[in-house]
Amino acid sequence: MEILPAIDLKDGKAVRLTKGLMDTAKIYSDEPWQVAKKFEELGSEWLHLVDLNGAFAGEPKNLEQIIKIRQNCNVKLELGGGIRDEATIKKMLEIGIDRIILGSIAVKDAQFVKDMASKYPIAVGIDAKNGMVAVEGWAEVSSMKAVDLAKEFASAGVEAIICTDISKDGML
Questions:
Q1: Residue in 8, 23, 30, 109 annotated catalytic
Q2: In terms of pLDDT, which residue wins out, 2 or 101?
Q3: Catalytic: which of 23, 51, 98, 127?
Q4: Is 127 among the catalytic positions?
Q5: Would the N or C end of the chain have less CB density within 10 A of its end CB?
Q6: Residues 124, 102 contacting (CB under 8 angstroms)
Q7: DSSP at 103
Q8: Which residues are 145's β-sheet partners?
Q9: Is the pLDDT of residue 170 over 80?
Q10: What pTM does this model have?
């Protein structure tokens, strides 16, 4: 198991949600790249970035901050939130993201994720609420069990499976 520090991005700021609720965002920094740099200085080799606005919008929305993090830090970056097609995957890799996290699309189109994992560095993000997979920025709960989704991708060529228990998220 690897432990990666996480930076959640909302409206260009580094935030922490409580149990995935957008209206609970506590702002930690107006300059997320500085938070990323601090994690790097503390010895982190990877950072986990989540574009919260992107997760709801279905496309990345905090690109300016993501680019600033890439330009100012030498750690490896994985990014999720609103990445749901190959063009967006390519764009994120071009700006220097090292691994792409696919979440909602993994529930809706598992074959797409498997195809992308054969070409690109892909992780599957599984966000669970009461054992069921939540999608679309955690706004919807699917009928799929989180453990079943993990089994689906266990030998599918993805680099990692990242699991979040929404009821614990942001609760320290």
A1: 8
A2: 101
A3: 127
A4: yes
A5: N
A6: yes
A7: -
A8: 132
A9: no
A10: 0.93
